[in-house]
Specification:
alpha+beta, 5 helices, elongated
């Protein structure tokens, strides 16, 4: 049941901050902060891509499509056939890609009583939670072109800037003998012929298969170095290339549904991102907000609104520089 003048969402399991929603067994008892804090992923995009300046308007990125080459001067095996020969001509070519940044934002409201009481540190934690939400929003945008609040597609973005849209695909259900590392090598070959391969982004929940099939074993099948297995590290390696783990690869963040993509690899120097402004927080007890149905004055109802927003842009110079490994069956 919604509280008085509570904006949507206002259901029991998805609501604004109210003392009335705090379970009796949590308030006013004292519990440790470790039980309140969820492990928060860092954005894969911010770790893997390269940062570039981005403006509020159109940002144009030059892309070199042809580099100069060299050729032999003269012919034959002797200096007489080479000396004084005509030097060959070479060429170069450029293109460009442009992008318009998108704005990501979210507002949550709390009662002033909730803010002042700060039960179990819930109010203090909202700022870090909103920053965490921005990181998830960036990953879902770049990997899948979606927004986590609704799960819907982002408007006004180029499909060639969405990593999951790469046409280089290795389906683990159909290729080879279902040996993961054979499939990873196949994926590497799809990219490495024409691009530099720099790393991988893998679903956190796929780490167990990567470790299980990649761990060295003796003739009896026992692990040679079990102490070397580390599930807590955010960075590992696959085929010698660094791998970063995060849930944005699959895409089931917020209201967005999961895809069959488990790993994306390639040349992440082709992924460029930037902020047109810093991640900003605004707190107001004077604002008037609407949820599409209700219009509520924060001042008149003793509420506080907390806003987080950022203007973010990214570009994928060449989507063919990436490959995805899918596992539609989930087996």
């Amino acid at each position: 049941m919604a509280m008085i003048n509570e904006l949507q969402p206002n259901t029991t399991n998805n609501h604004q901050g109210r003392l009335a929603y705090v379970p009796d067994d949590l308030f006013p008892k004292t519990i440790t902060s470790d039980l309140l804090t969820k492990a928060q992923e860092q954005s894969l995009v911010l770790r893997l891509g390269q940062q570039i300046p981005v403006s509020f308007g159109e940002t144009v990125i030059p892309v070199q499509t042809k580099r100069p080459e060299v050729g032999q001067v003269g012919t034959g095996k002797t200096n007489a056939l080479r000396e004084g020969g005509t030097k060959p001509l070479t060429g170069v070519a450029w293109d460009s890609k442009s992008m318009q940044p998108i704005k990501l934002a979210g507002i949550i409201t709390v009662s002033e009583e909730f803010a002042r009481t700060n039960p179990q540190g819930f109010y203090s934690k909202l700022q870090s939670d909103l920053a965490f939400a921005i990181g998830r929003g960036l990953d879902l945008a770049v990997f899948h072109g979606k927004q986590p609040l609704t799960g819907g597609a982002l408007a006004g973005i180029d499909a060639s800037d969405v990593l999951n849209n790469t046409t280089n695909v290795v389906n683990t259900d159909t290729i080879n003998n279902n040996n993961l590392y054979d499939e990873l090598i196949t994926a590497y070959d799809m990219v490495a012929a024409d691009h530099d391969f720099t790393g991988w982004a893998a679903d956190t929940r796929y780490r167990s298969r990567l470790i299980r099939e990649g761990a060295e074993r003796d003739v009896n099948g026992n692990l040679v170095n079990p102490a070397g297995i580390n599930f807590t590290s955010q960075v590992g390696n696959i085929l010698g290339f660094p791998v970063q783990y995060g849930k944005g690869v699959v895409g089931d963040l917020g209201a967005a549904t999961a895809t069959s993509t488990k790993i994306i690899g390639g040349d992440f120097s082709q992924l460029m991102w930037g902020f047109a402004d810093n991640i900003r927080y605004k707190v107001s007890d004077q604002a008037t907000l609407t949820d599409g149905t209700n219009t509520i004055s924060m001042w008149q109802t003793n509420q506080v609104a907390i806003l987080v927003e950022v203007t973010f842009g990214w570009i994928v110079a060449d989507l063919d520089a990436f490959v995805k490994i899918t596992n539609p069956s989930g087996s």
